[in-house]
Write a structure and sequence with these properties.
By secondary structure, this protein is mainly beta. Helices cover 12% and strands 35% of the residues.
Length: 156
């Protein structure tokens, strides 16, 4: 069975860096965990791969109203729940059969396994905030199991 590679990105805040475009090249799907801030970022990501995106607290306007605040998608037999702010998680992932929860908001990249559920925040791929890294993540799905990795982008 083919290994699926999913790009995880969040908190672009209107900036899709060239380094992020390069990193996401050849992914099968892109998941954006909100704070996109303009439709142009979504359109640019859609030129790379299909996109699943949720609305973040800074996403406003008609384009953003078309996005859900939460989204669950199943890819390669793995259920992935996406929400911008983890504090807004309104389901028990394990009971719901979700194996991976993707969130953003904090701009801090993190991976945490809790009760058999992988929680991932790819960090921010947009404008630098404080001294936090510019980062994104990848989800590799093979035979119904998921492996997550984070990647820091080298930017000027």
């Amino acid at each position: 069975m083919k290994t699926l590679r999913i790009g995880l990105i969040a908190d672009t805040h209107g900036l899709l860096r060239p380094e992020a475009r390069v990193a996401l090249k050849d992914v099968d799907l892109i998941i954006h965990a909100g704070d996109i801030c303009n439709a142009e970022v979504l359109h640019a990501l859609q030129q790379i791969a299909p996109v699943v995106a949720v609305r973040g607290n800074n996403d406003r306007g008609a384009w953003a109203e078309a996005l859900h605040e939460r989204e669950t998608v199943t890819v390669g037999g793995v259920a992935i729940h996406v929400v911008h702010d983890l504090a807004d998680l309104d389901l028990d992932p394990k009971s719901a059969g979700v194996q991976v929860v993707v969130s953003g908001h904090s701009h801090r990249p993190s991976l945490k396994m809790d009760g058999g559920v992988q929680f991932v925040n790819p960090g921010s791929a947009g404008p630098r905030r404080f001294k936090l890294p510019i980062s994104l993540g990848f989800l590799r799905i093979s035979n119904g199991s998921a492996r997550v990795e984070l990647q820091t982008l080298e930017v000027d």
